[in-house]
Design brief:
It is a single chain. The protein has a domain of 125 residues: Sortase, Chain: A. Strands 1-2-3-4-7-8-6-5 form an eight-stranded mixed beta barrel. With 288 residues, the protein is of the alpha+beta class. It contains three helices and eight strands. A hairpin with a 4-residue loop joins strand 1 and strand 2.
Length: 288
C-alpha cells in the first residue's frame, strides 16, 4: 500500500496524532543538538529590529543661540541684583558714618565752610573767606598765573616754633610756609592753618597749597606715595614725617581739620587738576 493511500485511509484523529508525534520528535532533536534546552535557542530577529535606530536630530543654530541668550540673561540678572545689593549696603554704611561724623571740626571751623586750598577766589573777598570750589562766571583771570605775577601781601611774622619751609623730595617740593590758609595767604606759598599744631608737636599740623595757580606748589601732590617722607622746617630744625594715607574728599568734608592726639601732618590741595571739585588729603606721621 502506498503512503498516499495509507494517509487517505487514516482518520482525522490519527492524522493529528501523527503530526503531534512528528513535533515531539523535532523538539527532541533540537534539544539534543543544543545541549541545554530551550534557553539557548537562537533568537529570531524581526526585520523591524534589524533596522538601525534613527539618530536624534541635532539642535538648529537658532535653538543654540536662543539658549545662549537665555543663559546670558540669567547671569546678567544675577549680576545686576548682586551689584544693587552691594550698592545699597555701601550707601547704608556711608549714611551711618555721615550721621556719626561731627558737623564741624575741632579746629574752630564753623559749619558750612569749606576746606582751604581752593583754586578760585572767594565770593566775598572783604571777609577773606576761603575760595569756593566752583568758579564764578566768568572764570577768574588768575587761574594758571605764576606767583611773580601777583602782588604778594606781607607775610605774618611766624613764632619760633612755627613752620617756615616744607620739602618733599619725592615730588620736588621746596616752598616757604606762611601763617594762615585763606585766599590771599595761599598766594605767597604753603599756608599753615591758624590754631593747628606746629612741627614736632602732638596734634594735627595742617598745611594747604594750590595745585594749579600761584606757582602750583602742590601740583604733583597726587603722585606722593605712601611711605615717602615730608620735611617741615621750623627755622633750622627739620621735622620728618612719613606718609601713611591718601584720600579724596568733598570740599565741605571738614574731617581732615580735626585734632589728633598723635603728632601728624595733613596736606590739602584741590583735585582733579584744573577742575578742582574735590580736595586731595595726604596724612603723615612724625618719624623722629
Amino acid at each position: 500500500m502506498s503512503d498516499s493511500h495509507s494517509l487517505d485511509d487514516l482518520s482525522l484523529a490519527e492524522l493529528e496524532a501523527l503530526v503531534e508525534q512528528k513535533r515531539r520528535i523535532e523538539r527532541a532533536r533540537q534539544f539534543a543538538e543544543n545541549g541545554e534546552g530551550r534557553r539557548f535557542r537562537p533568537v529570531t530577529v524581526s526585520a523591524s529590529d534589524s533596522k538601525p535606530r534613527a539618530r536624534r536630530k541635532p539642535k538648529s543654530l537658532f535653538d543654540r543661540v536662543l539658549f545662549l541668550v537665555e543663559v546670558v540673561a540669567v547671569v546678567g540678572l544675577i549680576a545686576i541684583s548682586a551689584t544693587a545689593f552691594l550698592n545699597l549696603q555701601t550707601q547704608n554704611q556711608e549714611s551711618a558714618q555721615a550721621a556719626r561724623a561731627p558737623v564741624a571740626s575741632a579746629a574752630g571751623v564753623p559749619a558750612g565752610q569749606e576746606l582751604p586750598g581752593s583754586s578760585f577766589p572767594p565770593a566775598n573777598p572783604v571777609n577773606e573767606l576761603p575760595g569756593s570750589s566752583f568758579p564764578p562766571e566768568p572764570a577768574p583771570a588768575a587761574l594758571g598765573l605764576q606767583l611773580k605775577s601777583i602782588a604778594a601781601l606781607p607775610v605774618p611774622t611766624p613764632g619760633p616754633r612755627s613752620p617756615t619751609r616744607i620739602v618733599i623730595p619725592a615730588i620736588g617740593v621746596d616752598w616757604p610756609v606762611v601763617q594762615g590758609d585763606s585766599w590771599e595767604e595761599l598766594k605767597q606759598g604753603i599756608g599753615q592753618r591758624i590754631g593747628a599744631a606746629n612741627p614736632g608737636e602732638r596734634g594735627n599740623l595742617i598745611l594747604s597749597g594750590h595745585n594749579d595757580v600761584y606757582g602750583e606748589p602742590f601740583r604733583d601732590l597726587e603722585k606722593l606715595e605712601v611711605g615717602k617722607e615730608i620735611l617741615v622746617y621750623a627755622g633750622q630744625n627739620a621735622f620728618r614725617y612719613v606718609v601713611k594715607a591718601r584720600r579724596i574728599v568733598t570740599p565741605n568734608d571738614l574731617s581732615p581739620l580735626a585734632v589728633s592726639r598723635n603728632p601728624i601732618i595733613t596736606l590739602i590741595t584741590c583735585t582733579p587738576y584744573r577742575i578742582d571739585t574735590h580736595r586731595l588729603i595726604v596724612v603723615g606721621e612724625l618719624a623722629n
